[in-house]
Amino acid sequence: MTKRIEARFEKCRSEGRAALVTYVMAGDPDPETSLQILKSLPKAGADIVEFGLPFTDPMADGPAIQAAGLRALKVGQNTVKTLELIRRFRADDAETPVILMGYFNPIYTYGVDRFLADAKDAGIDGLIVVDLPPEEDDELCLPALKAGLAFIRLATPTTDDRRLPAVLANTAGFVYYVSITGITGAATPDFGKVATAVERIKRHTPLPVVVGFGVKSGAHAAAVAQGADGVVVGSALIDALKGTLDAEERATSRTVEAVTTLVKELSEGVRSVAKRAAA
Amino acid sequence: MTAQAQPNSFRTGPDEGGHFGMFGGRFVAETLMPLILDLEKAYNEAKADPAFHAEMASMMTHYIGRPSPLYFAERMTEHLREVSTASGLSGGAKVYFKREELNHTGAHKVNNVLGQILLARRMGKKRIIAETGAGQHGVATATLCARYGLECIVYMGAVDVERQKPNVFRMNMLGAKVVPVQSGTRTLKDAMNEALRDWVTNVADTFYCIGTVAGPHPYPAMVRDFQCVIGNETREQMMQAEGRLPDSLVACVGGGSNAIGLFHPFLDDRGVEIYGVEAAGHGLDKLHAASLTGGRPGVLHGNRTYLLVNEDGQIQDAHSISAGLDYPGIGPEHAWLHDVGRVNYISATDQEALDAFQLCSRLEGILPALESSHAIAKVIELAPKKPKDHLMVVNISGRGDKDVPQIAEILGTDIR
Ligand SMILES: Cc1ncc(COP(=O)(O)O)c(C=O)c1O
């Protein structure tokens, strides 16, 4: 179930460093390019890959990820095709954990039980569903855990100590700390505050804590890697991708490389911070 | 959907988690979850505080101008009786208008905004955000923010900014900042997305004043409670006018706040027929905004309800001539009332609404909002089929002044 995720964090720990977690949108700017990007990410230094499930109304996302989702939908990306891309990724990579991240409505419409069976079969390890707080655990979280998929919860600056236990209760794989109150791709956090928050969460859980939102460069990644077990980067990769598209928003020969170049920089940032290997 | 067993009372919802049957809930990002829990707590405390109710009541009377009249629409009634006779029925219901368009700011929206702004004050929030479609909710919010000296930011789809210009100007005059939303389809749903994005970003000082019975719990219940003044007054006024309850109620349904406000106090009076009118746009087989008639259950904007979605769960473009009905969802309590069969949800097209607008203007000297015109359109259809002693109440949720430039354009008149 969460074996691939555990093994990957174990590997990073043994290398004395934090993990790099990357987010790109499935089908952006077209399915084949997004698969090529996904496949190139581990080679460029990503330890865990998050694949975005496109949705018309991504309430917690900023302009970069909103636009990425709309580009994908425009070329016909959907849940079935997204699972298929992951199946193809999994065919040549048996080890990199794949996390599907999105909103509940496409999953709900697909049908929760059918979705979980197909997601597991495609080789997905975990789910991040932004609009499912613990109060709605019956919807997907508990069925996912039963089906052997990690349900990765977001903890935020508004999740106080009173609420944290509820947020952590059914979470598995790792905890995703949202570094700011805000949407993706917006402000860069105060890294000092982030470190304090990570410590606070770690007092409540043995799970790895990764930090995302606002990380844009190798230097940011290094700053976050000081305290966190992993660093998530999304909007910055999508901005890099977007910068290479032609006037019709189609991929060009530079698209994949623009993403991998930034991933390499981020990976170096993460690797520049030596962490104590866990006992 | 198959009809579920009928409950003993239709007025007990929602449950603790904010559910009306399978609908409703709290489908929000974790960042917002503590905020909506705080809001729920503050609302429950306010509800139990006589001082809160006293302040509401005083402002309702002196600022909004309540109660709004229940008006016997005599010429509309006569006209529809002639229609009835012409079709060989010799019936025609007695039609009453609940005149929410006479409220300060020109629509029912202000009832809810007053409640939420007083609550925001109790909670010490100084920055108010709102989404708006037709601009009526935005104007009401801007108005009460002006009245109480609060900062006001209104998100409005760029398409709606264009078709509801008079209201944009009104909001500006009232000191509010109107932000045109360029994302997605650039209408009401996108304005709501953008307001939620603002709220996630400005958690400490901001109160999100939602304009209809949608959003995560407690909004659908809270907004309903604030709008129930419509139905409560109607009950009393009808008892005074006719010595009995009405036989039927008709209201338009966008998110469903004016409708639930009229309906809710009558839900357990089983003899009262209730009709909610959705926007059928160009027709139910074309682009429309009738989520109950033409949609299916899904999750958006914090709750489960009927939505216009495709087979992949992507939200579909809604269309209505009226910006206030141009939303691909509907409040969760309506979704439930639909499934249990207590309320009949029907729909009116753009053209039917336009025709009703013109008929009402000429017969009664009342320019109804295009939203309300959808309800009137169905009164025109239903009333002639009812007997003469049938008492029908239609909610005139707002006035049509804001729609005049748009209607002039549709009718081919240049008024600039
Ligand atoms: C006059 C009027 N009626 C009705 C509506 C639709 O909203 P609801 O269904 O919440 O009453 C609006 C929304 O803007 C409105 O302005």
Topology diagram in text:
The complex is a heterodimer of chains A (279) and B (416).
Chain A: H1 3-14, E1 19-25, H2 31-44, E2 48-52, H3 63-74, H4 79-92, E3 98-102, H5 104-110, H6 112-122, E4 126-129, H7 141-147, E5 150-151, E6 154-155, H8 164-169, E7 175-178, H9 191-202, E8 209-212, H10 218-225, E9 230-233, H11 235-242, H12 255-271
Parallel strand pairs in A: 1-2, 1-9, 2-3, 3-4, 4-5, 6-7, 7-8, 8-9
Helix pairs in contact in A: 2-4, 2-12, 4-6, 10-12, 11-12
Chain B: E1 19-20, E2 23-27, H1 33-47, H2 50-64, E3 70-72, H3 74-86, E4 94-99, H4 109-122, E5 127-132, H5 136-148, E6 151-157, H6 158-163, H7 165-173, E7 177-181, H8 188-201, E8 206-208, H9 219-227, H10 229-242, E9 248-252, H11 257-263, E10 273-281, H12 291-294, E11 296-300, E12 302-307, H13 332-339, E13 344-349, H14 350-364, H15 370-382, E14 391-396, H16 404-410
Parallel strand pairs in B: 4-14, 5-6, 5-8, 6-7, 9-10, 9-14, 10-13
Antiparallel strand pairs in B: 1-2, 2-12, 3-4, 11-12
The structure holds pyridoxal-5'-phosphate.
Question: How does this model look, in words?
Answer:
- The complex is a heterodimer of chains A (279) and B (416).
- Chain A is globular.
- In chain A, helix 11 (235-242) packs antiparallel against helix 12.
- In chain A, 46% of the residues lie in helices and 13% in strands.
- A nine-stranded parallel sheet of chain A has the order 5-4-3-2-1-9-8-7-6.
- Chain A has one domain (3-271): TIM Barrel.
- By secondary structure, chain A is an alpha/beta fold.
- Chain A has twelve helices and nine strands.
- In chain A, helix 2 (31-44) links the parallel strand 1 (19-25) and strand 2.
- Chain B is an alpha/beta fold.
- Chain B folds into two domains: 19-63 and 109-223, 3-Layer(aba) Sandwich (Rossmann fold); 67-106 and 225-410, Rossmann fold, CATH 3.40.50.1100.
- Chain B has 16 helices and 14 strands.
- In chain B, the strands form three sheets. Chain B has a six-stranded mixed sheet, sandwiched between helices.
- In chain B, helix 3 (74-86) crosses helix 14 (350-364).
- The longest helix of chain B has 15 residues, at 33-47.
- The N and C termini of chain B lie far apart (49 Å).
- The model of chain B has no long low-confidence stretch (mean pLDDT 96).
- Classes of the chains: A alpha/beta (279), B alpha/beta (416).
- The interface between A and B is large, with 45 and 36 residues.
- The complex binds pyridoxal-5'-phosphate (PLP).
